[in-house]
Specification:
11 helices, about 300 residues, 9 strands
């Protein structure tokens, strides 16, 4: 079924036929003056294509835009042949691009989607026109980096862990109530938004609908567990990922925030320092998903980067 999103009428919610399966996508056609540069948007762990909705219409100024649900998330079901690994998602993203008829495209990737984009850019440099990494889930150079969590990580994760453990303990004796659920939800939102009270209710409604009605074959819990293991494996031995960072040939924009509790700013700064040819911005008081937290800044940074790239 194909529908238009009520609050974003130019965004079409539909499905794409792939070999042996279907994938849910959101799409916006490029503006006539955009030059037709196609853009594929890849969400993070536990997210879906709707995390890109606030910026899709703006990105269409630069070419057609498609955001895809990875298998197990949103409304793309898991198939028996899916490996449910980061590397498997690289292959899936290429299948999506092939089905769209895109030989070359710009990839925007947030969190795990940024890790997928980095590996894809290294292994298939001929496919990427440009790469935009938004708080990409890239590991520290050494696993010892995990032993020194940043202040943003402690401040962001501790309330979530406390409320989750409280819910688990009280739930075991039947005492957990909506007040604790609300506290945990606020903690989750604070990982993304510096001011959760200012979140667009329409965006929250889309996210809530995803969780309420995932669709047949979508197993978010299974996908979360499998991809957490896959990411952990890559982070435990970061040499291959850092080799991929060095191998990316596409012009790249990296965006992140100093208050990101999941991908520390020091890791992003180390990546930027290792690739002086990339453009990087680690923004003060921004967190893990700039396209959700501050869509205007995201669009301005992407547009400015593209303008400078054309001028070179």
């Amino acid at each position: 079924m194909t529908t238009q999103l009520a609050d974003w009428p130019s965004v079409t919610d539909t499905h794409l036929d792939l070999p042996g399966r279907r994938a849910r996508i959101l799409e916006v056609p490029g503006r006539p003056s955009s030059g037709g540069r196609p853009q594929l948007l890849v969400h993070g762990l536990g997210g879906s294509s709707v995390t890109w909705v606030p910026v899709m219409e703006g990105l269409a100024e630069h070419g057609p835009v498609v955001a895809v649900d990875l298998p197990g998330f949103g409304r793309t079901p898991i198939e028996a042949s899916d490996p449910l690994t980061v590397e498997g998602y690289v292959d899936f993203v290429l299948e999506v691009a092939n089905a769209l008829g895109w030989d070359r495209f710009t990839l925007h990737g947030n969190s795990m989607g940024g890790l997928v984009g980095t590996l894809l850019g290294a292994a298939h440099p001929h496919r990427l026109d440009r790469l935009v990494l938004v708080s990409p889930a890239l590991p520290p150079r050494s696993p010892l980096g995990f032993l020194r969590p940043s202040r943003a990580t402690i401040d962001g994760v501790l309330p979530l862990a406390t409320s989750s453990l409280g819910a688990l303990a009280l739930g075991a004796v039947g005492l957990a109530g909506p007040e604790l659920d609300q506290r945990r939800n606020r903690a989750l939102l604070s990982l993304i938004y510096s001011e959760p009270e200012g979140i667009d209710p329409a965006v929250l409604g889309l996210m809530a609908a995803e969780f309420a009605d995932a669709g047949a074959g979508v197993d978010r819990r299974r996908a979360l567990l499998a991809l957490t293991r896959s990411i952990s494996r890559l982070w435990a031995n970061p040499r291959s990922t850092w080799s991929a960072i060095r191998a990316v040939q596409a012009p790249t924009l990296l965006l992140g925030g100093t208050h990101d509790a999941l991908v520390p700013a020091k890791v992003l700064r180390a990546v930027i320092a290792s690739r002086p040819d990339w453009e990087g911005h680690v923004l003060d008081d921004r967190r893990h998903a700039l396209m959700l937290e501050d869509p205007e800044s995201y669009l301005d940074l992407v547009a400015g980067w593209l303008t400078r790239a054309v001028a070179v």
